[in-house]
Amino acid sequence: MALVFQMRVAACNTCPAVQxxxxxxxxxxxxxxxxxxxxxxAEAAKALSIGRTHAYRAVxxxxxxxxxxxxxxxxxxxxxxxxxNKGVKESS
Length: 92
What we know:
single chain
């Protein structure tokens, strides 16, 4: 897919839609390169294969530990790992 995208960019450098996609792909690529230590609730829910609403309920009930900075709720990567490892140990 990257090769197709590069060919489209080369064919239409001034197209606003292509420029928008190019910026977003670059930002997404940079975000993936950074070793993240926290997740948003939605990202943690996806990583844990649970729904976003269920994740928010678990955060508010204290089942999932979280950090609140301003109005943003963040879940430490270590907390996601703890939940996954706890599930593996219980099912063994």
